[in-house]
Design goal:
- Helices cover about 30% and strands about 20% of the residues.
- Strand 6 and strand 7 form a beta hairpin.
- It is globular and about 80 Å long.
């Protein structure tokens, strides 16, 4: 009888599935934990069937983006409805579904990295996947996987920090979350797009070792761990060849070494050739067919310079993604999902709650006690209106009126505290116009009027919202614009109780004012509602737990890229090699202002009981590191336990002092202890040997440093590698 019931349930399930496809009910179901398989027999058979239907001209048309009636904005592939091939709809970027109307605006990607929480990255990916499904989007053009090489980079806010391991783990988790909602991710900008100045022509000269150890691993993790469906090449050249027709990047590494089976597209307008790009491995030119068109390709086929097999290979990759993700046989728009999704807004807020980094808290100035305050004055350019994100293709118009710092502080302080804003004395001009070393033309007189000074002096606390304006297409200065340095310094001379809230994608110069300002929070770009989290931290309703995903140097002259950035004559030498970020500061014994992985809390943590177990030999070597962490303070809070591998100095090989090889975020109540463990393998101890074209582990004792920043190490036992 049980067999009959089971058979009946299978039949009924199959019937419902068939009806769902026929009536569009699939759009009402939630494809949770969806994992596409590009090499499955089903995918191969369907792609083979479609390939037989397509003519040569139709195949060529699938190699480029399409704009036409019903397909606006240059965000579609070419449809062939008669064959069941839909136009694939795309959208920018990693912090919201852009182009297709207002959507949830999440905090900047660098803020997500500051959470050091892959589980939260996965949650954000899923939430953004729901936002995409609500709008019928097939491919989201993110995440950004480039490395923060220098603080001036115009798109640092779109990336996931300076460390390839952190960026790779966070990016892969985000990709998994997005694609579990049956929306394809697109890892970008592959590769060497570490600056925006002259991005369309600059030649990034990067050693093979630096590529293998620093700049390519996040993309490798996107492929191997995240199983990303699509990737986007960068605008710049890498070692002399444009990324869009660079066979080393597109074939040798991506296809041969990492076995990527998905779709490689160009950035918008980043294709520079027809024959060399197709042969190098570029599958799709976006947003149009300037180079991948019949007029250019058919003569190459006729002459034998280009084979039909190459064209078929590129078309198959697009079709493979389409079939694997069920874009061709199930509705992409999920009408059961609201476009203004409360769940997405909640995830965006949680990201900022875990992202805000408390950098300075002199004398325990924070948290503020509302019942002891009478007047708060807010000043600075970013107090109101809210700055939700950086400019450019990632900027997302929020679903809701964004929460400003002024509004959030008023709410958190309550009706018993008088909260006043003093308008910033300089006009909020365009982002580019902010970059000047003097106040904007026409601004005369003091920064603060006599009335302003009196108001500031009478305040219990002054909160300053400051920061550069950053965006795609250009890099910024290390110093903040429009005399913000002098503004803060003057402010602190009037009232010493100043709290600075920084809105930026990376570090800024602080020397002019940091010693006069007792408290500093880094809010990154907080998205549509993230200032609520900032205010919660200011008033102690939330314990700060964010950790820096990149090192904050004291002076630009201390930075690893100093002296060879932004380059000359359209060439930029990554002369620091593998010494990027904390690898540089720790190896060169240069004290940063705030180290990689750093972040203060309102409680205290103690890491202890570090132990090491090792087994196996050679490439089978496995090392397990365990440690205990205890909350020794009086309130609940979060910390990130970090593991760094320190190579021996006796191998004769140039190595950085230490490299991050594991991290775990923990939440603990007062007095609570938790054990964390890290599992290391042979590759975690390896370096790339350029001469041997492979990875090597020199014999010797390797340190295993455990702490909660690159400079705050609780203990460093060692293990022998042979």
């Amino acid at each position: 009888m049980s067999h009959l019931r089971r058979l009946l349930s299978i039949v009924l399930a199959s019937l419902f599935y068939t009806l769902a496809l026929g009536t569009g009910l699939w759009a009402q179901s939630k494809p949770r934990n969806y994992h596409p398989h590009l090499n499955s027999p089903r995918v191969k058979a369907k792609v083979d069937q479609l390939m037989r239907k397509l003519s040569t001209r139709e195949k060529i048309e699938l190699l480029a983006g399409y704009t036409g009636p019903g397909y606006p904005n240059g965000m579609f592939t070419h449809p062939f409805k008669q064959f069941g091939i839909p136009a694939l709809k795309m959208s920018d970027a990693s912090v919201g579904v852009r182009v297709w109307g207002p959507s949830t605006a999440y905090p900047a990607s660098v803020a997500l990295a500051a959470t050091w929480n892959p589980a939260l990255a996965r949650r954000e990916g899923r939430a953004l996947g729901e936002d995409a499904r609500a709008r019928g989007v097939n491919i989201v053009l993110g995440p950004g996987m480039d490395i923060v090489r220098e603080p001036q980079g115009g798109r640092n806010f779109e990336y996931l920090g300076e460390d390839p391991d952190l960026a790779g783990q966070m990016g892969a988790a985000w990709i998994e979350g997005l694609q579990s909602e049956r929306v394809a991710a697109c890892a970008k900008h592959y590769a060497g797009n570490e600056q925006e100045d002259n991005r369309s022509t600059i030649n990034s000269i990067i050693s093979r070792r630096a590529l293998e150890e620093i700049y390519l691993p996040p993309f490798r993790d996107a492929v191997r761990k995240g199983h990303v469906m699509t990737m986007m090449c960068a605008y710049n050249r890498v070692n002399g060849e444009y990324s869009s027709d660079n066979p080393f990047l597109l074939t040798t590494m991506l296809r041969d070494h990492w076995h990527f089976k998905g779709l490689m597209m160009s950035d918008w307008g980043a294709t520079h050739a027809t024959l060399s790009a197709l042969k190098a491995g570029l599958d799709l030119e976006m947003p149009n067919n300037a180079y991948f068109n019949a007029k250019k390709i058919e003569p190459l086929l006729a002459s034998g310079k280009l084979s039909m097999a190459t064209i078929d290979q590129h078309v198959r990759r697009l079709l493979r993604v389409m079939v694997a993700m069920h874009f061709n046989d199930r509705p992409q728009t999920d009408r059961s999902l609201p476009k203004n999704n409360p769940h997405s807004a909640a995830v965006a807020l949680q990201v900022e709650r875990e992202a805000v980094v408390l950098l300075k808290n002199q004398g325990g100035m924070l948290p503020l006690a509302a019942d002891r305050l009478h007047r708060i004055v807010l000043v600075g350019p970013d107090v109101s209106p809210a700055i939700t994100g950086g400019a450019g293709s990632s900027y997302t118009k929020p679903n809701i009126p964004p929460v400003s710092l002024l509004e959030a502080v008023r709410t958190a302080a309550g009706p018993g505290v008088q909260v006043t804003q003093i308008p910033y004395p300089y006009p909020l001009r365009s982002i580019r116009a902010w970059w000047m070393h003097r106040p904007p033309a026409g601004i005369q007189g003091p920064m603060f009027t006599a009335q302003d000074r009196q108001l500031i002096q009478s305040a219990d606390v002054v909160i300053a919202g400051i920061g550069p304006r950053e965006g795609e297409g250009w890099d910024r200065h290390f110093h903040m614009p429009a005399h913000q340095d002098q503004y803060l310094k003057t402010l602190a001379s009037i009232n010493p109780h100043v709290i600075a809230v920084l809105y930026a994608g990376a570090n800024v110069a602080m020397s002019a004012w940091i010693h006069q300002v007792p408290a500093l929070l880094d809010a990154w770009y907080p998205g549509e509602n993230g200032n609520t989290a900032v205010a919660e931290i200011l008033f102690g309703k939330l314990n700060p737990s964010g950790k820096l995903p990149d090192s904050f140097e004291k002076h630009w002259r201390d930075a690893p890229a100093y002296g060879h950035y932004p380059g000359h004559d359209d060439h930029v030498h990554f002369a620091e090699g593998i010494f990027v970020g904390y690898r540089w500061f720790d190896s060169k014994h240069i004290a940063p202002r705030y180290p990689f992985g750093f972040g203060l809390s309102y409680t205290q943590f103690h890491i202890h009981g570090i132990a090491v177990q090792a087994s196996g030999q050679g490439r089978r070597r496995q090392v397990v590191v365990t440690a205990e962490i205890t909350n020794t303070g009086e309130r609940a809070g979060g910390d990130v336990v970090q593991l760094y591998v320190r190579p021996p100095h006796t191998s004769g090989v140039v190595r950085t002092y230490q490299q991050l090889r594991g991290f775990q975020r923990v939440e603990l109540n007062p007095g609570q202890t938790r054990t964390v463990s890290f599992h290391l393998h042979w590759r975690d101890f390896a370096y790339y040997n350029t001469g041997a074209h492979g990875w090597r582990v020199p014999a010797g004792r390797y340190g295993l440093a455990v702490g909660d920043s690159s400079r705050n190490i609780a203990g460093a036992p060692s293990v022998q590698m042979q």
